[in-house]
Amino acid sequence: MSKLLRAPLLTGLVFAGALCLGAVFTPEVMAQAEEAVAESAYSSEEYVASDGYAVFAVNNLWICISAALVFIMHLGFTTLEAGLTQKKNAVNIIFKNVWIVCTGILLYAMWGFNAMYPGDFNGYFAMGSWFGASLNDVSMTTADYNAGYTWWGDFIFQAMFAATAATIVSGAVAERVKLPTFMLFSTLLVGFAYPIIGSWKWGGGWLDQMGFYDFAGSSIVHAFGGFAALACVLLLGPRTGKYTESGIKPIVGHSMPLAVIGVFLLWLGWFGFNGGSALSADPKAVSYVFVTTSLAAAAGAISSIVGSYVLLKKPDVSMALNGILAGLVGITAGADTVGEESSIVIGAIAGLLVVVAILGFDKIKIDDPVGAISVHGVCGIWGTVAVGIFSMDASHSFVTQLIGTLAIGGFAFAFSAIVFGILKVTLGVRVSLEEETLGLDISEHGMAAYNGFETA
């Protein structure tokens, strides 16, 4: 499409959208909506005065706060990915992450929520539907739905999780993937693949029936995203100039301060990611999960610092940052069921694993600019099987944990390889050498992230 036509077309679309909204949100419709809310369960004096209302209100508030903390993680992913890549691709990173979180929320509402939590289904696949419910239905707005949250509190918390898998892929394919191709792939991954594997455990599916345990998503979220990223990177290939006849040429990120901000935002968000997964404001459960989460993150950082110093003969700050994330991913599956000492061991092993994995992938020419495959894929598997080793619950089996994480990772890899492979032979997945050299900010978006900057 000609660049001269883009602006008028976009303007027309915005205008048409405004007309549609004007037609829908008429004064009469708004008045009816306000009346419905006024007559809804929220105004039930009898329920508000009941003994259980205060507990229910606090629980639901914590779930909503946790959803907000998980939302902050998307800002963390954006700044981390931007900081660890070249400045000529920063706008592209930002755009992809905006697309992912917005489409993720909408698709989860339209199909994913009711596909992921079907309850009674065949255990493998459930048809989803629009998530909406009536404000007048007390079974959705009170503890009749759940002691910890309303229907909408449940939805918004889970919706924040849904977009994370594609965000993981975004970092791994950075600096050389075609934007329209990635947008389509991420839509399919978040909209359809993620709810399917989520239903296997959190929706009462076959993994849940066999006793698989994943408290907050070491496999369901992180290993899923990591192995989806691996499939895409294998099909996409490395960045130009990364691997040469004389060896590996580092392509250095442009802003370590941005990367540090991203990691600490992610650590903050993980308090909602793991703490919210207690599904209530229970003081014991939430505070304990906060502690195991932080212990694992700190141990991951220290072990990655030591490991990188031994292997690289220098204290590598990017490895330290990925060590924090490795510890967080590692503890996510069992944050509520392993001891404090065990959380340190799990985080420390994850920190070492991420160093070895990043260096190992580089040696076999799998180019991952931010280490996403290592952090989320490798450490996601480790955190899941660690439950079978360290859990205080004797029913958690190592074999079951291994089967579960391999099934989830395998599905993510196969789905991504097929979908991304089809896109490769149809739309193409990689930008041209000229566009890659110029930078995706200019070639894909026609703008630079930093004033006065156009090329690397």
Description:
With 456 residues, the protein is an all-alpha fold. It has a single domain (45-118, 137-445), classed as Ammonium transporter fold (Orthogonal Bundle). It is built from 19 helices and 2 strands. It has helices spanning 3-24, 27-38, 45-48, 53-83, 90-116, 138-141, 151-162, 164-172, 179-201, 206-209, 218-236, 256-275, 283-312, 317-332, 340-363, 372-390, 398-426, 433-438, 440-445, and strands spanning 243-244, 247-248. It has a two-stranded antiparallel ribbon with strand order 1-2. Helix 5 runs parallel beside helix 9, helix 8 (164-172) packs across helix 9 and helix 11 (218-236) runs antiparallel to helix 16 (372-390). The chain is globular, with a radius of gyration of 23 Å. The relative contact order is 0.13. Residues 61-450 form the Ammonium transporter AmtB-like domain. It is found in: Cell membrane; Membrane. It comes from Stieleria maiorica. Keywords: Ammonia transport, Membrane, Transmembrane, Transmembrane helix, Transport. The chain crosses the membrane at residues 57-77, 98-117, 155-174, 181-200, 220-239, 251-273, 285-312, 319-338, 344-361, 373-392, 398-423.
